[in-house]
Amino acid sequence: MQEKMQEKMQEKIKKLATLQSTDSKLNAIEKSKGNLPYLVNELENEINIINSEIAEFESVKETLENEIKESKALVESSRILLEKYKHQRNMVTNNKEYEALIKEIDFREITVIEEEEKSKDLSEKLIVNNEELDSRRKAVAEKNSMLEEKRSQLDQKLEETQEEEKQLKEKRIILVAKIDKHLYNLYRRIYDSKEQVAVVPANEGHCGGCFTILPSQKLSELKRADSIVQCDACSRILFYEIKDAE
Ligand SMILES: [Zn+2]
Predict the structure, then answer these.
(1) What is the H or E stretch that residue 238 is in?
(2) How distant, in Å, are the alpha carbons of 80, 134, 146 from that of 57?
(3) Percentages helix, strand, coil for the chain, rounded to the nearest 5?
(4) How far is the CA of 7 from the centre of ligand 1 (A)?
(5) Which pLDDT tens digit goes with each residue over 186-240?
(6) Residue 226 domain boundaries
(7) Ligand 1 centroid to residue 235 C-alpha, Å
(8) What's the gap in Å between 201 CA and the centre of ligand 1?
(9) Do 184 and 214 fall within a single domain?
(10) 168 CA to centre of ligand 1 in angstroms
């Protein structure tokens, strides 16, 4: 009778220890992904922002180029007119016509000066705009290659761990179903509050979690294995592994 109870309790403790080892393995898998999922997400956001800036600089570039083209065309047509007016000026016969021509010539000369200045101004703006555009294109290219690298690292990591993770999760579900609810709740409480370590070995004479030396009474309780034994200092569930059992 006593022996049967002991066996049953040992089974329970063993299941808890297996659950702990399963959870630790799942934890290690999650940790092995490191900050890759975060990095990939961050890079994607940064690239989106830079790409929308690039689109803006590209549209400014187009506007500036069109304005420069218009300005240059205006200078060109004004120069052709100036030549024509100057030629006509030599041939006019009355004052009224002459004055009208002089007025046209003045207007066209001012236009040439103004438009040349404007076009010079716009060209300077275009240079600055192109520099901004270039630096962003470079930045986005760098970030894209970094993203590619991180993504492939993450994919590789996921590929490596996917199967193991799946198996561990399936094992965990089966295991939890076999553990008494109150014991599972106790496990969860300790697991969540004690750095995800709820079940620890005690065969070295101390708690495997907080390393507090266990009093001999605790050790004999553990050896009796007829109840769940917890560390007095950290409340972790202790199990006694018999060394050199084989
Ligand atoms: Zn402890």
Answers:
(1) strand 237-239
(2) 35, 10, 23
(3) 80, 5, 20
(4) 24
(5) 999 999 999 999 999 998 899 999 999 999 999 999 988 889 999 999 999 999 8
(6) 1-32+180-246
(7) 6
(8) 10
(9) yes
(10) 27
